[in-house]
């Protein structure tokens, strides 16, 4: 029995009728953010997910924390202002996962796009194309203005052609100018979702979390669930929040809500490239550019690889979404056109992923014109369902805290409770007490190295990966050692895996390699390494040999089916993606 599992088992055993105020369906970033906020206000919450925490749409973003420069041209100024504020707050509250990202915009003309932008601003359903220097300069100035609250990054710079090509030497010489502005990136979004859930559990001992849990029945206000281990439990909540993302309509139907089509999702796919020359030439920058078809694309360095994204394709099958071959071709063609002096081929693709954006149902002619703003429609109680249902529709990864705060205030009002604290300055997970300045960081690293016996470089690496949670990992009493490393993933130790298995609500092996760590997306998995990780988890979670074999097979299957990787003893190779039926 794991330490955290034992704690939750005790909480579940003490669960009484009426002990849960709010049930949250869906443990993506919006649901997890709301769970943390409500728990911090003393509201007893249950958050659950049919899969793992952060395993759906929240695991498939462009891994950006950004204000949304492109939303200026659709007139969504409130969304841009909120997004820029939340970006600035996340840089402070989650410094172990979120860092500044200077962004280069190549410009191919001086005056193009102004009439189209004006039409879009007043409601045209035709996406603008070929944004020229004047338009981009105005946009960057507005972006600086909207990001002025809690500013933590420099203002934009505008570069003429010669200077721009010195900054980005492989960009096509067809540009006439370039702009550099600042947004941010998130290195481990899946992990941050888990940390939000864990923060909620720590904030309120009356709150509960259950991953890999399904709804068995919903009748007369009684909701019955079953966890993966077969344990069944029932609750009678005062209110339900549906944060199931692309699955919102299905969850509402299961709860007996009136038939209503809230979600009209689009698919966003990304690829990772093994391209050291490209990563070096980017020099820590992202290039945010317009592809030949007018779609906005991006490329930047992510954990040593180059991340390229994204598509925006209508899709209504979130359980089987994957990056298709034609999307990979699209990405490669786009970066070839932008960076003609570099080589881009399929053998450089190491990983791909895709997810469904839970956007509101819309009849927009272009998916890119569907608003990324959020809303929270409410189904009031009715006969046979005494609780209201609040559905979390839309939203961006960046704005989860603000969205959660808005919904939490609605919930508090309905429960006749008051807010005890703001989450605006509330650090997340390993961001708590994080040593931000160089002096503070050096002091933390030296102290941790002295306490645990690891060298300073290793303490630094773990601090970057887990934030201040690294201290608990290094202090973990285990038969494993931090000096024992995983085959193929030499920067990860058996001690880390044991701690994660015992402390972080792991149900499946996939939870470890896809979400609590970034080993899968970094291409660090081998068959041997997966066996070693599985063996550690099996001891911690009391799996028998058959269960362990199934867990390994499930990871191998998921890698091939959803991420284009074939796992071998030596490492990974690209898998052919089956044609979509």
Short description:
The protein is α+β, with helices and mostly antiparallel strands and 581 residues long. Helices cover 36% and strands 20% of the residues. The strands form 6 sheets. Strands 3, 4, 5, 6, 12, 13, 14, 15, 16 and 17 form a 10-stranded mixed β-sheet that branches. The protein has a 6-stranded mixed β-sheet with strand order 7-2-1-11-20-19, sandwiched between helices. A 3-stranded antiparallel β-sheet has the order 8-9-10, with no helix packed on it.
Strand content: 15-25%
Helix content: 25-40%
Q: What's the overall average pLDDT, rounded?
A: 91
Please provide the count of β strands: 25
Question: What is the 3D form?
Answer: globular
Estimated radius of gyration = 24 Å
Largest beta-sheet characterization: 10 strands, mixed
Which stretches of 5+ consecutive residues score pLDDT under 50?
A: none
Number of helices, where a helix is a run of at least 4 consecutive DSSP H or I residues: 18
Structural class: alpha+beta
N-to-C CA distance: 43 Å
């Amino acid at each position: 029995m794991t330490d955290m599992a034992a704690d939750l088992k005790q909480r579940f055993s003490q669960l009484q009728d009426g002990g849960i105020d709010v049930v949250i369906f869906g443990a993506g970033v919006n649901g997890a953010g709301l769970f943390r906020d409500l728990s911090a206000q003393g509201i007893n919450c249950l958050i659950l997910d049919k899969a793992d925490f952060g395993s759906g749409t929240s695991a498939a973003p462009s891994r950006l924390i950004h204000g949304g420069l492109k939303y200026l041209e659709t007139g969504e100024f409130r969304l841009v202002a909120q997004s820029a504020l939340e970006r600035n707050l996340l840089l402070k509250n989650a410094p172990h996962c979120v860092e500044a990202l200077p962004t280069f915009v190549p410009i191919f003309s001086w005056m193009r796009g102004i009439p189209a932008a004006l039409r879009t601003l007043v409601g045209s359903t035709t996406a603008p194309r070929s944004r020229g220097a004047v338009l981009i300069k105005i946009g960057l100035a507005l972006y600086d203005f909207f990001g002025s609250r809690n500013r933590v990054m420099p203002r934009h710079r505008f570069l003429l052609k010669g200077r721009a090509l010195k900054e980005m030497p492989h960009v096509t010489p067809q540009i006439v100018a370039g702009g550099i502005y600042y947004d941010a990136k998130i290195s481990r979004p899946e992990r941050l979702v888990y940390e939000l859930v864990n923060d909620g559990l720590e904030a309120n001992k009356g709150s509960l979390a259950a991953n890999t849990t399904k709804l068995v029945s919903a009748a007369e206000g009684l909701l019955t669930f079953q966890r993966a281990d077969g344990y069944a439990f029932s609750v009678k909540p005062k209110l339900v929040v549906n944060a199931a993302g692309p699955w919102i309509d299905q969850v509402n139907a299961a709860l007996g809500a009136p038939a209503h089509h809230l979600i009209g999702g689009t698919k966003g796919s990304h690829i990772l490239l093994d391209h050291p020359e490209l990563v070096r030439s980017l020099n820590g920058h992202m290039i945010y550019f317009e592809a030949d078809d007018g779609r906005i694309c991006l490329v930047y360095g992510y954990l040593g690889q180059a991340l390229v994204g994204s598509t925006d394709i209508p899709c209504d099958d979130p359980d089987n979404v994957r990056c298709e071959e034609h999307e990979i071709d699209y990405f490669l063609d786009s970066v070839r056109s932008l960076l003609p002096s570099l080589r881009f081929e399929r053998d450089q693709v190491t990983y791909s992923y895709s997810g469904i954006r839970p956007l509101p149902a819309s009849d927009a002619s272009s998916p890119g014109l569907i608003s990324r703003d959020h809303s929270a429609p409410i189904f009031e109680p009715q006969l046979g369902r005494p609780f209201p249902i609040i559905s979390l529709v839309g939203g961006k990864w960046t704005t989860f805290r603000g969205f959660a705060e808005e919904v939490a205030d609605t919930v508090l009002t309905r429960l006749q409770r008051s807010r005890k604290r703001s989450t605006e300055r509330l650090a997340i997970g390993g961001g708590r007490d994080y040593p931000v300045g160089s002096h503070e960081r050096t002091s933390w690293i030296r102290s941790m190295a002295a306490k645990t016996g690891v060298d300073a470089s290793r303490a630094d690496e773990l601090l970057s990966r887990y934030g201040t949670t690294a201290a608990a990992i290094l202090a973990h009493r285990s038969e494993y050692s931090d000096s024992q490393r995983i085959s193929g993933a030499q920067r990860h130790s058996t001690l880390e895996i044991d701690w994660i298995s015992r402390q972080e609500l792991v149900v499946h092996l996939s939870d470890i390699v896809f979400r609590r760590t970034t080993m899968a997306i970094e291409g660090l998995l081998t068959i041997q390494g997966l066996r070693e990780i599985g063996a550690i988890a099996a001891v911690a979670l009391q799996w028998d040999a058959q269960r362990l074999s199934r867990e390994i097979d499930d990871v191998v299957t998921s890698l091939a089916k959803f991420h284009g990787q074939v796992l071998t003893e030596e490492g990974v190779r690209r898998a052919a993606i089956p044609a979509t039926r």
